[in-house]
Amino acid sequence: MSDTKVSQPSNLSRRSLLKAGLAAGAVAGSAGAARAAGDPLITEIQDWNRYLGEGVQARPYGTPSEFEAGVVRRDVEWLTASTESSINFTPLHELDGIITPNGLCFERHHGGIAEINPADHRLMINGLVDTPLVFTMEDLKRFPRENRVYFLECAANSGMEWRGSQLNGCQFTHGMVHCVMYTGVPLKLILEEAGIKTSAKWVMPEGADASAMTRSIPMDKALDDCLVAFKMNGEALRPEQGYPLRLVVPGWEGNMWVKWLRRIEVGDEPWHQREETSKYTDLLETGKARRFTWVMDPKSVVTSPSPQAPVTHGKGPLVISGVAWSGNGRITRVDVSIDGGRNWKTARLDGPSLSKALHRFYLDIDWDGSDLLIQSRAMDENGYYQPTKNELRAARGENSIYHNNGIQTWHVKADGTVENVEVS
Ligand code: MTE
Ligand code: CO
Questions:
Q1: From the alpha carbon of 156, which atom of ligand 1 is closest?
Q2: Does residue 159 have its Cβ closer than 6 Å to ligand 1?
Q3: Rounded to 10 degrees, what is the CA torsion of 106, 234, 143, 253?
Q4: What are the structural domains, with CATH classification, of the chain?
Q5: To test the ligand 1 pocket, which listed residue (152, 213, 216) has its Cβ within 8 A of the most ligand atoms?
Q6: Mean pLDDT lowest for which of 17-31, 90-104, 296-310?
Q7: DSSP 3-state assignment of 138?
Q8: Would you tell me how many other CB atoms lie within 10 Å of the CB of residue 28?
Q9: What is the rounded average pLDDT of the residues 236-260?
Q10: Which tens digit of pLDDT belongs to each residue from 148-200?
């Protein structure tokens, strides 16, 4: 094969290609780097170009390239005593856009992963209803269904960071969040099928796993936007995410999104389950605890650069990117600071802007190579601003674990490495 054939698409000879590359690289501050003349990756034909590749059906269920092997969920061993009641984290620093791939959605289990044959799964509706009902998966798939993109955030996300910077990577500080498109039946339709009595004010979803997760949800929310979901990103839920059925409670803390959903009881008052009394409450300085703090307030984090995604290209064009979300609705603005919160620039939101979903933001800067203290601050359509950690501590004290939506700081050093620090 001649050199001209290698560069066929642009009809350039090898010499003019090299010249073009060098010329682009010579422009100060340009993102196009100068490539060494004679780079064999340009001048030599490579194996993947010379030989036929694998055919169709070599990978009946597609998986990422072997070069993406580092893009995985990770846990922090010392955080929990056992893996069955534990957590792992979404690799936010590796992702872009707003959708989390199914295999990368963080997992939080209280009694391990229930492995359920959908043919054996049942959903019962009982309590203050006209007719108690039991549905099979097949029954549920005959109700009108909807497709909705929502984030799910565990109330404990960033819980380790209340008193200062702890974990070195946004995967660990903010990775208890994911965002997928759910397919499911509005809970309203299922409750209406059973007929809710006028005294009914609450519902209690229950999981079929070893923890039998149970939470109280007010009827208004149940009838508003909750879904009984069986698909995520178009395919069946993953076992980790509650296969074959989970509750979707948009904008509210992840704990209420009961996985392996087997029963919904209808009642006239909350049940005061363990996960809404001893856990998932916020202990204040006064010794009192905030309870039923369901909504996940506006929050954001810069995912790159971040400790696991250092700057490797030196000074010049630098893409600062991150995600923002709010349980109250859409994100309308994200500001980014590179000097620890003294000055702010409004970031560019890109991609769909959907209520109670992740939003992607970018700030494209020309990095002069000096130290940066990068922060991001989100605002939602109701005008709620993400607070600084000091503002949060002034309001809630230092005993809290849950609902930390304070502003995160990354220290980018001159050599491009990044560290979790606190500036508040
Ligand atoms: N549902 C059941 N049945 N069992 C559980 O352990 N964990 C809850 C919730 N639903 C849990 C559950 C918690 S605390 C969270 S944050 C979310 O599921 C996590 O959902 P994910 O594993 O799909 O990320
Ligand atoms: Co949780």
A1: 16
A2: no
A3: 20
A4: 74-291 (3.90.420.10), 299-421 (2.60.40.650)
A5: 213
A6: 17-31
A7: helix
A8: 6
A9: 98
A10: 999 999 999 999 999 999 999 999 999 999 999 999 999 999 999 999 999 99
